[in-house]
Fold this protein.
Amino acid sequence: MTHEKTARSSRRLSGSPFMDDAMKQVLVCNSCQCDLSLPIDFLEEKFTITNLNKYPEEDGVAPGCAMHIEFWVWYADDKDILEQRVWMNSDDIAGFTNLDRSLSHGCCGPNGQINTRCHCGALIGRYYSDCLMPNYFSPEPDQTQFLPFVEDEWEREAMKRERLYAANKK
């Protein structure tokens, strides 16, 4: 049997392969348009499993930061897929999400299957804290998006209503 290699982008991006790193971003649920994270900065460097040792944090992603990472994943259908994911510090989503412990659990913690829900009930990402991996969160690209963070709460709420209106119009 041969392994077929396919590239799959797990981020929904418009135009560039990565978000603008100079601006703080916030993770948003595509279902209810609610904020799912504190404002974060993306690290400039793109990481792979092999160059991850250049990252200064030993225990995962630093608070307030997110990183782009890509790695090959083998699936049971004999395909290797290049995952292009975002890793975030799990503290940056605390209070915005709920870990659904019934969905996945490793020997000593959540093992990274889709296991995190928005308060609206949508499955929005993968929380890792098993002994095999550093502690981090990886959002699902089809269920979430990164948007520029807006300081003004009223403006942020108005933008949320506009996104909900546009989604309901479709």
In short: The longest strand covers residues 65-75.
